[in-house]
């Protein structure tokens, strides 16, 4: 039996992602010690490794988990021992380097960790399986006093620059329906929304990313000027919900045929007439693309 830390190293899947996959997709159900700590057996390790490989190959986490639950994908050979912290795909080591760079306020170390992290697979896989857990860990490190706010800001801005570059690089693929993406008034946590906008561009959607703290009237102007078919508001915190609801209400009143969707940790059930996208960036972008093309998104 393996602890969650050992399982993360064996599978190349960050601990935060292991918890997310367990809760959201039910791909494995680890045993628990008397103290409540997770324990994974060899079968669970093989299953999680297979899921990681499927996601890296372009499957959404929901599709990969369903295929594994239904026995449609062979698990393959047993997982071998890790070959040092620099082995390809050691996501946990890269996460730890990212946090150490932030704690030391070392811009070079932060960039090197991001280089390593973004080499783990496709953009969507990296965002869901490595970057988002790394950002959560960054926030937790700041809350515990292990990372100064200066280091947290330096790391966050490095991520923002990396995502902005990926967004611009994906612009040449934008040929599909016009979509506006951003945050409602007062909301400043834009990394998830920018990652989502980039993933949508990579699917071929014509995305205009508005950024953080966008007034409701500016949302309406963007939708009108772009003749957008969809507007997606990131709702990152509970405090964002009232402004997001007001913005969505204005958009629907002015553009009744507009698809208004919400994403993020607090986007669910925001307002009648709006769609709720899955939390994971890869799943959310695929779901929006399906809705725009008149399909029912996969659960």
Polypeptide structure, described:
- The protein has 299 residues and is of the alpha/beta class.
- The chain has three domains: 4-69, Multidrug-efflux Transporter Regulator, Chain: A, Domain 2 (Orthogonal Bundle); 91-168, Methionine synthase domain (Methyltransferase, Methionine Synthase (B12-binding Domains), Chain A, domain 1, Orthogonal Bundle); 174-292, Cobalamin-binding domain (Rossmann fold, 3-Layer(aba) Sandwich).
- It is 53% helix and 9% strand.
- The chain is built from twelve helices and seven strands.
- The chain has helices at residues 4-11, 15-25, 42-56, 61-69, 91-104, 107-117, 123-143, 149-169, 191-202, 216-226, 241-254, 281-292, and strands at 31-32, 38-39, 178-182, 206-211, 230-234, 259-263, 275-276.
- The strands form two sheets. Strands 4-3-5-6-7 form a five-stranded parallel beta sheet, with helices on both faces.
- Strand 5, helix 11 (241-254) and strand 6 (259-263) form a beta-alpha-beta unit.
- Helix 6 (107-117) crosses helix 8, helix 7 runs antiparallel to helix 8 and helix 9 packs across helix 12 (281-292).
The fraction of residues assigned to DSSP E strands is: 5-15%
Write the CATH architecture name of the largest domain: 3-Layer(aba) Sandwich
Mean pLDDT: 87
Low-confidence stretches: 77-89
Topology:
Elements lengths: L3 H8 L3 H11 L5 E2 L5 E2 L2 H15 L4 H9 L21 H14 L2 H11 L5 H21 L5 H21 L8 E5 L8 H12 L3 E6 L4 H11 L3 E5 L6 H14 L4 E5 L11 E2 L4 H12 L7
């Amino acid at each position: 039996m393996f602890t969650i830390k050992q399982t993360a190293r064996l599978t190349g899947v960050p601990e935060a992602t292991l918890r997310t996959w367990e809760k959201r997709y039910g791909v494995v159900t680890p045993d628990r010690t008397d103290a409540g700590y997770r324990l994974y057996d060899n079968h669970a390790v093989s299953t999680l490794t297979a899921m990681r490989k499927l996601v890296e190959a372009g499957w959404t986490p929901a599709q990969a988990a369903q295929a594994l639950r239904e026995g449609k994908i062979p698990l393959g050979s047993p997982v071998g021992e890790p070959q040092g912290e620099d082995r390809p795909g050691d996501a946990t080591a890269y996460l730890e380097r990212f946090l150490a760079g932030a704690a030391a306020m070392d811009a070079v170390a932060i960039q090197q960790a991001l280089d390593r992290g973004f080499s783990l697979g496709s953009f969507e896989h990296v965002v869901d399986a490595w970057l988002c857990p790394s950002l959560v860990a960054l926030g937790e490190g700041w809350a515990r006093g292990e990372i100064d706010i200066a280091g947290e800001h330096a790391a966050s801005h490095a991520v923002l620059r990396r995502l902005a570059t990926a967004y611009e690089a994906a612009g040449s693929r934008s040929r599909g329906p016009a979509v506006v993406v951003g945050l409602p008034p007062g909301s400043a946590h834009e990394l998830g929304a920018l990652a989502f906008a980039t993933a949508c561009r990579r699917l071929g959607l014509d995305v205009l990313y508005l950024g953080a703290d966008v007034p409701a009237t500016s949302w309406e102007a963007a939708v009108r000027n772009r003749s957008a078919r969809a507007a997606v508001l990131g709702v990152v915190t509970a405090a964002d919900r009232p402004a997001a609801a007001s913005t969505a209400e204005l958009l629907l009143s002015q553009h009744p045929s507009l698809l208004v969707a919400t994403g993020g940790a607090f986007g669910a059930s925001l307002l009648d007439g709006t769609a709720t996208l899955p939390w994971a960036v890869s799943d959310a972008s695929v779901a929006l693309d399906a809705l725009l093309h008149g399909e029912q998104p996969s659960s």
